[in-house]
Amino acid sequence: MLDSNMSNIALLSSAYFGPVQWYQKLNRYEECRVEGFDHFIKQTYRNRCVIATTNGLQTLTVPTEKYPGDKCLMKDVRISDHGNWRHLHWNALLSAYGESPFFEFYEDDLRPFFERHWEFLYDFNMEITDKMCELLDIHPLILPTKEYVKAELTGGNEGITDYRYCIRPKHPGEDPSFHPETYYQVYDRKFGFQPNLSILDLLFNEGNEAVLFL
Known about the structure:
By secondary structure, this protein is an alpha/beta fold. It is built from six helices and six strands, in the order E-H-E-E-E-H-H-H-E-E-H-H. The strands form two sheets. It has a four-stranded parallel beta sheet with strand order 5-2-1-6, with helices on one face. The chain is globular. The N and C termini lie close together (9 Å).
């Protein structure tokens, strides 16, 4: 549902199993544009997600190939096969959520993302997003950007709200529209509720009711 006090377009950075906040924008805006012409920045949700485990929070990071120069456009970043990361990520999810209420229900839908090889991180993330929207039963209009969108052009006159520098793991920007709702989590008795984890945490714990929290 579109918030009445917002513009109708959300501008988002690409995300690897993005946080609940990121998917909330997909669900609430009429149109979402995913930026591929921004410069790739490490330690963002572009190539990492955060999950809850029996030992606390864990960050899963997709390694990327080295690129020439100091900067590289997101759309040109290649995924590295270094360190057998696909196997490690899947085992981490199995260990963290294997006993969650809905892991087995979604297991076959998600395993291919840790078996098949994608060349470009942006393409990988977009296919993940499409699958997650299908599983969440949300139907956003998602468009890749065709050129870099300057921050100064994303004002009210353009009808765009820019979340690229707002939704990030460290030092997130202000987002008055995001109020994380508590839901059941496997380890909430041990650590208390952990807000804004990867969308996988919400899906594995709430199943087809996950959309109610977006």
